[in-house]
Design goal:
Blueprint: E1 4-9, E2 20-22, E3 25-27, H1 30-52, E4 65-73, H2 90-101, E5 112-121, E6 126-133, E7 142-143, E8 148-149, H3 150-167, H4 172-176
Parallel strand pairs: 4-5
Antiparallel strand pairs: 1-6, 2-3, 4-6, 7-8
Helix pairs in contact: 1-2
Length: 177
């Protein structure tokens, strides 16, 4: 069973601001650093709650992880859009969370193998954060239909694709699109 942690940060999502430059070097503006600190605080609260339940997450995790982020924004009274297509940009929102959790949930953000990010309208502003450990050995993950490891299935698909490329029935351009 893989380790995971889910928590909600009940604060307005803040995008990562550009670094500021001064004669002493670069720095992160106060609004961004406060938001990163908030995510660290919410993470530590969730970790303590899990520990109280008897679950030791042993953070920071060393291996590959996947993260899912859902940013909720209050809808303006005049806004009739179904989707949240206004500012802030989704990549800058994610960067704030990832930087806030770096060193706490995981050793380094290069461990993140998958990242799913979305923004939506919600009754209360906040961010849902789900962090999952990815199995260390792909052989541990089985396809429930065939009861065979997914790695064997991927290997078979790769062999078929390579054969079709060699036969000329598909081209590498088709695969990348």
């Amino acid at each position: 069973m893989t380790r995971h942690l889910c928590f909600i940060a009940w604060s307005k999502p803040v995008p990562k601001a550009r670094p500021r430059f001064c004669k002493n070097g670069t720095y992160t503006d106060k609004r961004t650093s406060d938001a990163e600190y908030e995510f660290a605080w919410f993470f530590n609260q969730a970790k303590q709650a899990e520990k109280a339940r008897g679950v030791d997450l042993m953070c920071p995790w060393q291996g590959p992880i996947e993260i899912e982020l859902v940013f909720g924004f209050e809808r303006a009274r005049t806004n009739r859009h179904v989707h949240h297509i206004t500012h802030p940009d989704i990549d800058n929102l994610a960067k704030t969370v990832l930087d806030g959790l770096n060193g706490l949930a995981y050793c380094d953000d290069r461990q993140i193998m998958a990242l799913k990010v979305s923004k939506t309208y919600a009754a209360k502003e906040g961010t849902i954060v789900i962090i999952r450990e990815i199995c260390k050995n792909h052989e541990d993950v089985f396809d429930p239909r065939t009861n065979r490891p997914f790695s064997q299935k991927l290997e078979k698909i790769a062999q078929i694709m390579l054969k079709e490329i060699d036969d000329g029935s598909i081209t590498p351009e088709v695969i990348s699109s």
